[in-house]
Amino acid sequence: MSIGDQAQRPASTLSRFLRRHLPHLGDVEASWRELLQASPGPECGLRDRWEDVGRAFELRIGLDLGHHPEPAELLSYLPPDRYVELLTSVGMERKSGCASRAAGATSEPLLWEWERVPGNSESECVDEEKEQGALTTCLDLMEVSGLAHKHPDWSVERRRFWFITNTEDRSLGEDPEARDALGKAWARYAGQARETFRDMGAPVLVAPEIAGGFGIADLVVGDALVEVKITTRPVPPVDEWLRQVLGYLLVDWDDVLGISTLVVYAGWQGVMLTCTVKELLAAASSGTTPRLAELREEFRAAVRPDFATFIRNRKLQQQKRVLRNPRRGTQPRRGGAE
Question: Cα–Cα distance between 220 and 208 in angstroms, integer?
Answer without folding.
Answer: 7
